[in-house]
Amino acid sequence: MSSIVDRPNVPESDQPGARKPISTGSEWTFDLIQEYDDEIAKCAGEFGLDTYPNQIEVISAEQMMDAYSSVGMPVGYHHWSFGKQFLNTAKGYQRGQMGLAYEIVINSNPCIAYLMEENTLPMQALVIAHACYGHNSFFKGNYLFRTWTDASAIIDYLVFARNYVAECEERHGVDAVEEILDSCHALMNYGVDRYKRPPPISAAEEARRQKEREEYQQRRINDLWRTIPRPEDDDDPIKRQRRFPEEPQENLLYFIEKNAPLLETWQREIIRIVRKLGQYFYPQRQTQVMNEGWATFWHYTLLHRMYDKGLVNDGFMLEFLQSHSAVVYQPPFNSPWYSGINPYTLGFSIFTDLRRICENPTDEDREWFPDIAGSDWLETLHFAMRNFKDESFIQQFLSPKVMRDLKLFAIENDDQEDHYMVTAIHDDPGYRPLREKLARQYNLSYREPNIQVWNVDVRGDRSLTLRHIPVDRVPLGEDTEEVVRHVHRLWGFDVHLESVDDGTVVEEYHCPPPHLDDE
Amino acid sequence: MGMTHIVDRRLNGKNKSAVNRERFLRRYRHHIKKAVAEAVHKRSITDVERGEKVSIPTRDIDEPIFHHGQGGRREMVHPGNQEFVAGDMIPKPQGGGGQGGGQGQASPDGEGMDEFAFQITQEEFLDFLFDDLELPNLARKKLKDTEAFKYVRAGFTNQGIPAKLDVVRSLRGAHARRLGLGGARKKKIRDLEKQLEALKSAPEDLDPAFSHEDQIKVLEDEIARLKANVRRIPFIDEIDLRYRQHVKQPKPATSAVMFCLMDVSGSMTQMHKDIAKRFFILLYLFLKKNYKKIDVVFIRHHTSAKEVDEEEFFYSRETGGTIVSSAIKLMHKIIESRYSPAEWNIYAAQASDGDNWNDDSPVCGKLLADSILPLVQYYAYVEITPQDHQMLWYEYEKIMERFPQSFAMQQIADPGEIYPVFRQLFERKAA
């Protein structure tokens, strides 16, 4: 971990123009990339950015499309959905709708970042600053990544996963494996223990333990499903009433992997693989604003530092600033290009304003951020990066100034009213509620339905009951029946899903659907 | 710093997604087959050089997950407020049923949001087409590959193997380079030598400051330096080398003409014609592989025959009876006037539902045996009907006995049965 940090405030001898720019053209070469990286690394060091070693891979546009379509995994098992993704990417790219240029960076050690060969030199420098020093230091520093992922083991684990899936395809057929994967993907977001720290993924460990699991697992499961009744249980009505699991389980995939009665061992292993990948992506899903904001803040700051040192010229800065402003552009809500809040904009604005609050605090800042206003900005930014996720970060650091700058406002849509209502805007009474509402918007358990394993009818028809707890009466979407079918495929017996609002069942889903004459 | 490792991955394989793409096509093969079938319907039978755009309804390829639906109460924060203040009420659009809280759903490219569209390649297109026809792999390969190549000269290149070195051009290049590099210096040498000559022959100046000896020394040194420079220009350099370049070109035999004969009388439905069209496409693909130039002649007939374009051939309907011999006669006439068997390989494919005037069938048999089969490479007859055979079939059976080498016939009730006719064709070609 990095501690605090030499200030770059003391100029060595670097008035602008004192040193010659590294290059003036826009063509890149490997030597130039190396040189830019050296200099950016020096600047990053001045600001105390602590990173994994970098591995910069120069790739072609086609390879970039490959990388895109495997959702950021450098090695992946085969699945049709990645093929679909690829066709989509290729289509967008060939029509020129989509720039591929920006960045793909892998949370691994060394940290792998891709540079596309078509990029100009300023773009390459921007991506290096953004990915290799921005994202990289975020991966290494943020507590969620430190808790949930093991950067040094992920590549090995992905290789293990791919080989295992390929082996299963050989042994059990592509169709059988595809079925299991489809069902697991449907539940991938429900394969995480949100409140327990997981054991880190380690490939060597996986491979060693996987054999053991195969042997012991089936025995354990048979135990749970023992069909001969245990007399002492049956005597006790309270014990018979007891649910299994005793406490609701939020990790559906884990529960199914460990308890589904009919799955074969290889199927359990595949569930486990998807679960582990879900876990690997879990921190990214919760830190989009922070992660992009942090990386954007640093490409902006690092390249300005390069300019101050005279290492890049005005032409370079013009091209860089043009790309930068495209990245942080936020269309207003009534624009045809509006598609929600741009995480780059929001994150960049908060980090930038945080620095301002430290360096040039106003009275308002002193009132809102008494601990931070006037403090050491680098220390404060690093603290914010390390210890928060989007929800708490916004709750903690979104300032009235940023709300004013972005002109944020909140709208309530209640299906029982015939009007939308503006509930808060960027004014004195609005700041606090607005900040709360925006923070909640990034809370995963608000964004995604809360669905848990409620009960298994262990002694009866072995059916599995899931329970959905709606928030503000928001129902489940139209995919729900389809997903329940996937749960049924994994579980092997009847599956019920009930939405329970305030103790009343408001909606039910069943697979297979109930027979009419049963009623 | 040395912490960063830069790798050039551009030469690594780029088709990392090929398997995933293949998996996708495999999963949606029914959709794609349908699209291919429709495309075949729309395309000309000679139009097999390109892939096809396939659209699949988005709901069929969605990956379902648990997510929130419409309804309930929810709040969203948006940017770009202009005139709203807290407490403002905005009427909901009527009839829209309360759109969700704002995620924009407009598709920027204007393409329908409920269609997933993508392109399949020509190879994939043919594969799906062959799939439908139940073509075995070996036959597929034969149809898709152009196996015969010849090398043709294609100018010169500065890279190559020694065996392809063109000595004359290389030396010519070297000569030009030597002239280019040395010419100016040689001229300078000649000028200096003249000055030297003049200096040597001129009388000695009296002023020692202008002593000829020094000047001669200077000139001589300069000439020596220039000569050394010229000597250093290599006689031949790597950049002078020129190699003959050859490129591979498919080497089809010569020309072929393909006659498509079809009954368009009232009893031939569009379904019959579609099956016939597959059959004609296959024959075309087969010929395309073997011949450089292929003409296709379409002859349709009911009671009388007519040469038509492809559109009219497949998509216009007639009513009335059937006289097959009219088409065979017309084919013969066209061969005589335009396609001399000495220059053309002649193939014919006839599709019919088997209907013919009974008097006419023996006429057909005789015409084929006497005037057509001696001229053609191959004549294939497909009878598209699930019903019992009529006169024409029995007449043709006799022909097949007499001309097993150049005549094939098959009854077809669905596209999967087209292939056996072709197998005979391939076997014959292989022999």
From TrEMBL, chain A:
Pfam families cross-referenced by the UniProt entry: SpoVR (PF04293), SpoVR_C (PF24755)
Transmembrane segments: none
Domain SpoVR-like C-terminal span(s) in chain numbering: 449-502
InterPro entries registered for this protein in UniProt: Spore_V_R, SpoVR-like_C, SpoVR_N, Ycgb-like
Domain of life: Bacteria
Disordered: annotated segments: 1-24
Domain spans labelled SpoVR protein-like N-terminal: 27-445
Listed NCBIfam families: PRK11767.1 (NF008737)
PANTHER family: STAGE V SPORULATION PROTEIN R
Protein name: Stage V sporulation protein R
Organism: Marinobacter pelagius
Source species taxonomy: Bacteria, Pseudomonadati, Pseudomonadota, Gammaproteobacteria, Pseudomonadales
From TrEMBL, chain B:
UniProt-listed InterPro entries: UPF0229
Sequence segments annotated as region (Disordered): 88-112
Extent of Gly residues compositional bias: 94-104
Pfam families: DUF444
Domain of life: Bacteria
Family to which the UniProt record says this protein belongs: Belongs to the UPF0229 family.
Name the record gives this protein: UPF0229 protein DET50_11435
